[in-house]
Every structure is written in C-alpha cells, then in structure tokens.
Amino acid sequence: MSSVPENTQLGKHVVIENNVVIGENVTIGHNTTILQGTQIGDDVIIGNNCVLGIKTSGNERMRKKADKYGSLNIQSGSRIGNIASIYAGTDIGKNVFIGDHASIRENVSIGDKSVVGRAAIVELNSTIGDSCTIQTLAYVTGDTTLEDNVFIGPCVSMSNDKYMGAKNFTLNGPYIKSGAKIGNNASLLPGITVGRNSIIGAGAAVTKDIEDNITAAGVPAKRLNSDGNK
Amino acid sequence: MSSVPENTQLGKHVVIENNVVIGENVTIGHNTTILQGTQIGDDVIIGNNCVLGIKTSGNERMRKKADKYGSLNIQSGSRIGNIASIYAGTDIGKNVFIGDHASIRENVSIGDKSVVGRAAIVELNSTIGDSCTIQTLAYVTGDTTLEDNVFIGPCVSMSNDKYMGAKNFTLNGPYIKSGAKIGNNASLLPGITVGRNSIIGAGAAVTKDIEDNITAAGVPAKRLNSDGNK
Amino acid sequence: MSSVPENTQLGKHVVIENNVVIGENVTIGHNTTILQGTQIGDDVIIGNNCVLGIKTSGNERMRKKADKYGSLNIQSGSRIGNIASIYAGTDIGKNVFIGDHASIRENVSIGDKSVVGRAAIVELNSTIGDSCTIQTLAYVTGDTTLEDNVFIGPCVSMSNDKYMGAKNFTLNGPYIKSGAKIGNNASLLPGITVGRNSIIGAGAAVTKDIEDNITAAGVPAKRLNSDGNK
C-alpha cells in the first residue's frame, strides 16, 4: 500500500509501487515510475517519464553492492525534470533542482538548493553540499565530495580508480572544497583535492592537489601567474 | 481539445495533452508524452518514450525564466528519436533529425536539414543554422549561435559563463561561423568566435577568437603551421 | 504474435510488439517498450522505461543505412538498466551489464561479461570484446574495435571521420588492443590504434598510433618516460 494524498496531481500511466509515501501538493508527470519505498516531501514536482527509487544492480565484474540501502528520500520543494533516474538509498535535500536526463546513484546526499544539470551524473557514495551547481553533462564519479557552493562546469569529468581496474585500489573520487570552480570539460584524477575558492581552467587535467585560492590550467594543470600565463 | 488526424500512427500509452495540433501522416511511438500546445507538421516521425513540449522550470538559484514562451513547433518531415526531450518555445525546421536521448531547451531555433546527435544537448536561446551537424554527446550551451553548415564533433563542450557564477556577467555562448568544424571533445569558452571554415583540433581548449580559415589545436588552442606543428 | 512465458515478470504499461521471443525467468520493468523481432535470453533483467529493438533512422544528410539488419539479440543472464535504448541488428553477449541511459546502435557486438556504463554510447558497426569496461558517459564511435579486457574511462571521446564531413573518407574508428586502458576524458582520433596493455592518461588527445605497453599523455599525447615526465 502507498500513501497518495488527494491533492496529488498525477499524470497518466504513472506507476506507483508499494510503500511509497507522497507529501502534500505533489505533482508527478506522465509515464513516470515510482518504485517501492520512495518518500516524496511536500510541494515536490516530478517530470514525465522518470524512474525513481531504483535498486542497485550490476554483473559479476562490477563493484560489490551493499546488501541493503534505505529508501530514496526527496525533501520538500525539490523539482525533478523529465526522463531522470534516481536510486534508492539517496537523500535529495530541500529546494534542489535535478535536470532532465540526469541520473543519481545510491548512497548519495545532495544538499539544499543544489542544482544537478541536464544529463549530469552523480555516482554512488558521493556527497554534494548545499548550493552547489553541477552543470550539464558533468560527471561526478563515485566516492566524491563537494563541499558547499562548489561550481562544476559543463562536461567536467572525474575518475576514482587510479589503476583503471588493474590493481586493488580503494576507490577514491576528488575532494572539492567550498567555493571552488571547475571549468568546462576539465578532467579530475582520483583522490585529488581542489582547494577553497580555487579555479580550474576549461579543458585542464588536474593530476595533483591544488591549494586554496589558486587558478590552474593546462594538461597537466599548472598554476597560472597573475598575468594568466603558466 | 487536440487535433489528431485519422492517419496518425499512434503507439500505445501515448499521452497527448490539450491544444496539440498534429499534421498529416505523423507517427508517434509508444509511451511518448506530447504536452500542451505542441504543433507537429506533416510526415513527422517521433520515437518511443519521448517528452515533447516541456515548460521551463528551475529553482531559486537558477537563471530567471521568461514569463512566457510559445509552443514547440516541429516542421514537416523531421524525425525525433527515442527518449528525447524538447521544450516549448522552440522551433525545429524541416527535415531535421534529432537523435535518441537528445535534449533541446526553450527559445531555440534549429534550421532545415540539421542533425542533433544522440544524447546531444542544445541549451536555451541558441540558434542553429541550416545543415549543421551536432554530433553525439556534444553540448551546445545557452546563448550560442551556429551559422549554416557548422560541424560540431562528438563530446564538444561549450560554456557561456565567464565567471562561473561568481560575478554578474551577461551569459554569452560561442559564435561559430559558417563551415567551421570543431574536433571531438574540444572545449570552447564563453563568447569566443570561431571564423568561417576554420578547424579546431580534437581535445583543444579555445580561449580566444579564431580567425577565418585557420586550423588551431592544443590547450590553449594555437594556430598550427602548414606542417601541422604549433 | 510474441512468445512470453508465464514466468516472465512483466511491469505495468509494457509494450511488446510482434515476433518478440522471451526466454525463461525474464524480468521487464514498467513502461518499457520491446519492439518487433527482439530476442531475449533466459534470466535477462530489463529495467524501466527502456526502448529495445529500434530500427535505424536518419535524414538525407546522414550516412546511408543498410537496407536490412537482423533482430536485437540479448543473451542469457544479461542485465539492462533503466531508460536505455538498444537497436535491432545488435548482439549482446552473456552476463553483460548495460547501464541506465546507455544507448547502443545497430550492427554492434558486445562480448560476454562486458560492462557498458551509465549514459555511455556505442555507435553502429562496432565490436566490443569480452570483459571490457566502458565507463559512464564514454563515447565509442562507429566502426570501432575493442579487443578483450579493454578499459575505457569515463567521458572518453572517439571520432571516426578525419575530415569532419568535408571530404569523402571511409569512416574508421579507433582500434584498441587487448588490455589497453584509456584514461577519463581522453580524445581518440579516427583510425588510430592503441597497443596491447598500453595506458593513455586522462585528458590526453591521441593523434597517432600508440605501440604496445606504452604510457602516453598530453595534448597531443606523447610517451612518458619512466619518471612520468614527457
């Protein structure tokens, strides 16, 4: 049984599985699928053709999954676009915006007022602070931390596996400190830290830690002088 | 009320909201959602599980939206793939092809015979000329202009916000002149111009204007000599 | 007529067209569309809101399509995520994992136990060996070969058209030999070969063939010395 208040605006062909809890004044678009156990706060707006509350899957060559995750919990005032997918075991804060075609994995936390852009992806075990912006088509790999007010430009890429599957390595995504800004299509390597309020140029490859308040660019990324040259 | 001619080939579980106008000999795939006010020309073919005619959304931290946009208008002979999303307030020309998983925002104009590839994204307020090719996973940011016959390679990235949200800045995407070709995974910075028939190498970062008839490559992109070296 | 065994777990609003053959103990999620002629092996699990068995399409400016392809054939034990699209004329091996939002074109072969990541794309006429990993948002262009045990990092980009549509050119994707590993967001040019067990750095642009057992990085990619410098 699920709890769907009378003031829910339900589209056509919506599927709501068991044990779904829906708050007051929620809108759910057409052809959207809400899987078992999903919890949706008040005033949430969900677009068309989404899939919410997905259980983890994989094949024998993929990382072992936790045996059990909790529900997907979408807090009040958040908006989910169209054709988006979000996993069970993840917490979406208040007044968050998730774009069309975006995908968010399990065991992720997204802080209040953050924006996950169109077709952006956030992998498992990642923590996104408050008021972050993850732009279109950006890729936040697993085991990544963004503190508050971080800006991830369009098409930014991250990785969390130093040996690309060749050796045992504790998967470790980037750690991006408060106020840092990553330019479009930059590449961040496993485990690197980007310091507070630092800026990474478009197309850079960040292979080492970047201190606070630095501007760096290039492949590999190097600190720019005050005149903008390396 | 909507106008759906008898010769429409309608899939199963298609949702057609109010005030949709459909031309002659249109095909609409299964599980596709056509939202209010969408206008579809003759001989248009739309795939399965699409969402067409989306109204703009956002949260308090995102760009203020126009109060009102017109309809989505798809002109005759165009084809839309599967799992694609297109917004209201956009005009798709004649004989255009939009790939699967592609997403096109509001207030966009796409010229006749252009191709928007699989999972490619065109953001708001952008103008795409005739016979352009935007390849797979390419990202056309907001406020961008492509003249006619422009080629955007796979995974090309663009940005339109010089200060990444840190300062007030009039958002300004790239301006790409007729016949220019952008190599795969190149990064284009806000407001840069690429000249007529110029060629940008794969993986380049274009940080300054590029004149007509130039080949440029590297991070940052520099003009190549006739022997292909910088 | 289609063959759907009684032990099939069928979601709601699933569309199964004619001549679909489904093996034993198959699960199909809600709102998924299975198009004409698709063949699904035993113990396959398919997510929600997918489109499987798509026929090729295009407009007058795109590559001429083959007149006829066979069915989509998904072999036993494979898992397809949510909101994925796969074309007719393609063969998915045993125990393969295809992520959410992924898209696989026609005339593709994917070997046993391989993984195609979330929102990754494999274009037409490509051959993927056994036990390959294609990570999230990676782009495998048309006419590409991956031998066995190849690792393609997140957001890797490839191209197959040397002249970007300007001249006649036989389309020719990269050829990546067994055990090679491509770092995240690297760009591979048309027709290049990456040798056995070679490693390409994150953000590199590979413009020439890379021999066996080499590590290369940079734009353009150059061989690294043993101390990691160019």
UniProtKB/TrEMBL annotation, chains A, B, C:
UniProt cross-references to SUPFAM superfamilies, sorted A to Z: Trimeric LpxA-like enzymes (SSF51161)
Entry keyword annotation includes Endoplasmic reticulum: no
Record InterPro entries: Hexapep, Hexapep_transf_CS, Trans_hexapeptide_repeat, Trimer_LpxA-like_sf
Alphabetical UniProt keywords: Repeat, Transferase
Transferase keyword on record: yes
Source domain of life: Bacteria
MF (Gene Ontology): transferase activity
PANTHER family given in the database record: ACETYLTRANSFERASE, ACYL-[ACYL-CARRIER-PROTEIN]--UDP-N-ACETYLGLUCOSAMINE O-ACYLTRANSFERASE
Protein name in UniProt: Transferase hexapeptide (Six repeat-containing protein)
Organism whose genome encodes this protein: Lentibacillus persicus
